[in-house]
Design goal:
single chain, 387 residues, mainly alpha, 4-hydroxybenzoate polyprenyltransferase, mitochondrial, 4-hydroxybenzoate polyprenyltransferase activity, UbiA_prenyltransferase
């Protein structure tokens, strides 16, 4: 979750990575399955963790999906659609919105950038996020193919249940990576060089989630790199412009804090499995003061977001629309989420993204439109494009 080099570097390895589990004998042997016409067995989307986060009773049967996008596909395509999480777009949104934030924040700082170019750049970012999120899921599930079957929430993923062979999963991921490269080549060449520094972070994540209580921090550093990439995508030289560097850096840091916040809520869905398996996680480390940590992360996110706006020269529309809405949506989420209720954690993880990112986006859109139309000054669009 991608576009800039982040699509081919950051999101492919980290967007869908989950908590790792200890390797045991395969737990699905001997369980009842529903015969299918394929050599592989297909899982119902309702038994995937993304669609049944509130399941308390272990599921021992699975059937092909009967509703939703995945159910409308040819049966032989269904496992690949499930592998790419097409039935759950949340990961794609979490990849896309930081790139949209940076694009809208950078647009007034760019020279001669028309709205149609901003829209086209955002469209490329979304395409990259969609493609590379699928590649990241495939790569993650390949890493954890011997671990996922032992976790109730992940045991029916396509590779874990044998619906897709590891070899076919590699081919599927490779195809998506090539498609992501095609998207990457549509951006200015400098995007590649700005994306390269994310490589060490991406490589570190699979190790971090095995040895530290804070793998979500490393994950956020990796997948939120897109919060920087909107600037070079619109031709803004970050290294040559102090204000742009400060704006990009603080926006990126803000998005990382946001990532740790929502992933901490997500981690609470697995907390019982983590205890049983002896797995480290940020939810376990701060199980008894989670909401205090979430509050601190929310304040950090909004403060850094405001700093990014100051560096970019934003006006009151941004601070009221983006920062104000972020305070309200994050505060509501932290107040309402029931951390011991898996269904509640899933609802806020999925919908909290849309609430917070939607508010930030509308504030940035209003700010960009105001500056483009010259509402803050006596000048109009022509002067803005020449600035």
């Amino acid at each position: 979750m991608q576009r800039s080099a982040i699509f081919s570097i950051g999101s492919m390895s980290s967007t869908a990575m989950e908590h790792t589990r200890p390797s045991l004998s395969h737990p699905l042997r001997g369980q009842q399955v529903v015969p299918t016409h394929s050599s592989y067995v297909y899982s119902t989307a309702t038994h995937l963790p993304e669609a049944r986060p509130n399941t308390n009773t272990p599921v021992t049967r699975y059937t092909p999906p009967r509703t939703g996008l995945v159910a409308s596909l040819p049966r032989s395509w269904m496992p690949y659609a499930e592998l790419a999480r097409l039935d759950n777009p949340s990961g794609t949104y979490y990849l896309f919105f930081p790139t949209l934030f940076s694009t809208l924040l950078a647009a007034p700082m760019a020279t001669g950038v028309a709205p149609i170019q901003v829209l086209g750049t955002a469209g490329l970012f979304f395409t990259g996020a969609l493609i590379m999120r699928g590649a990241g899921c495939a790569i993650n599930d390949l890493w954890d193919r011997n671990l996922d079957p032992h976790v109730e929430r992940t045991k029916f993923r396509p590779i874990a249940r044998g619906a897709i062979s590891p070899q076919n999963a590699v081919l599927f991921a490779g195809t998506q990576l090539l498609a992501g490269l095609g998207v990457l080549l549509q951006f200015p060449n400098q995007c590649l060089w700005y994306g390269i520094p994310s490589l060490p972070i991406v490589v570190a994540y699979p190790l971090a989630k095995r040895v530290t209580n804070y793998p979500q921090c490393v994950l956020g550093l990796a997948i939120l790199w897109g919060a920087i990439m909107g600037f070079p995508a619109l031709g803004v030289d970050i290294l040559g412009n102090h204000d742009a560097l400060l704006a990009a850096g603080t926006l990126y840091s803000s998005c990382v804090a946001w990532s740790v916040l929502y992933d901490m809520i997500y981690a609470h869905m697995d907390i019982k499995d983590d205890v049983a398996a002896g797995i480290k996680s940020i939810a376990l480390r701060h199980e008894h003061n989670t909401k205090a940590v979430l509050t601190g992360l929310a304040l950090t996110q909004v403060s850094l977001l405001g700093t990014a706006g100051i560096a970019a020269g934003c006006g009151p529309i941004f601070f009221v629309g983006s920062c104000g809405s972020a305070i309200l949506s994050l505060g509501l989420m932290i107040w309402k989420v029931q951390l011991k209720n898996v269904k509640s954690c899933w609802w806020w993880f999925r919908n909290g993204c849309l609430l917070t990112s939607g508010g930030i986006t509308f504030g940035l859109l209003g700010e960009y439109a105001s500056q483009y139309l010259g509402l803050y000054h006596s000048t109009g669009p022509e002067s803005f494009e020449q600035s």
